[in-house]
Design goal:
Length: 268
């Protein structure tokens, strides 16, 4: 089903020729500026869940150090998910669910294998560290300034690419991103419940020296009764731009899920 989506003009990106798809073909991948990948010195991924396709593909293009954060993807959480999935597999006795479960279990172990170098103590090209922490200002969380101070205490990295998907927690870290925008080579960030936070998103876009170069509407996030999306993914880069696109989606874009609506949106 094709839906016409309503977006304010400031959420329409500028046209660029250097967009590439990084990640898989569905959820967990993004269209970003290839030069911003090649120019990056460090990748900070905030909110990885169990999907590391974006990070893996990014490092294939530019093998920089990687630090990933997620407070919900530790050993205990993994064991609980495996236990639940195993019980459901026994109860359901369905071949498809059983095969899906095998893939699910293998994906979790591949996640840990991907971060096999997490014990390295020095940020080198093969450095990969997964930190079981949520990113934010609350007690027990770690903030962006704290991340940079802890992992880059000598201020060696001036070009950092940020990938952020933290299920609504993005709004409390926007000011930190603005304060450190001088060192951001590229940024992709998912915004949730945008119909409730449009002013904050606009202020964020207006405060960045980076340009908005891609807007993706998450078709799993749903829409409001007025036809506005609830979840979008925005890509920013430090590149020259001239005019905005007049229609979405981009021809390289892919839906988060093939089981939900497809969309079209026009610049007013």
């Amino acid at each position: 089903m094709l839906k016409e989506i309503k977006l304010p003009n400031y959420l329409f990106p500028f046209q660029v020729e250097s967009l590439v798809r990084v990640g898989n073909n569905f959820d967990g991948s993004y269209l970003i500026d290839k030069d911003s990948v090649l120019n990056s010195e460090l990748l900070i991924s905030i909110g990885v869940g169990w999907s590391f396709d974006f990070e893996k593909n990014f490092l294939e293009i530019n093998n920089v150090p990687l630090i990933a954060f997620d407070g919900s993807a530790g050993i205990v959480a993994t064991l609980k998910k495996i236990k639940f999935r195993t019980i459901q597999t026994i109860k359901k006795k369905e071949k498809k669910y059983f095969l899906d479960s095998i893939y699910y279990f293998s994906y979790i172990f591949r996640f840990y294998f991907f971060f096999k170098n997490f014990r390295n103590i020095r940020l080198n090209k093969n450095y990969r560290k997964f930190v079981k922490k949520f990113v934010g200002p609350e007690e027990g969380e770690i903030s962006i300034p704290q991340i940079l101070k802890k992992f880059d205490s000598e201020n060696k990295f001036n070009k950092v690419f940020f990938q952020i998907d933290i299920e609504g927690g993005e709004y409390v870290i926007l000011q930190d991103l603005i304060d450190h925008q001088h060192m951001i080579s590229g940024l992709v960030i998912e915004f949730h419940d945008i119909h409730q936070h449009l002013n904050k998103i606009k202020e964020f876009i207006d405060s960045l020296n980076l340009n908005l170069i891609h807007t993706h509407i998450n078709n799993v996030g749903g829409t409001t009764p007025e036809g506005s999306p609830k979840v979008i993914e925005l890509t920013f880069a430090n590149c020259k731009v001239f005019k905005k696109v007049d229609k979405l989606p981009h021809n390289l874009d892919q839906p988060n899920s093939s089981e939900h609506f497809e969309y079209i949106a026009y610049l007013n």
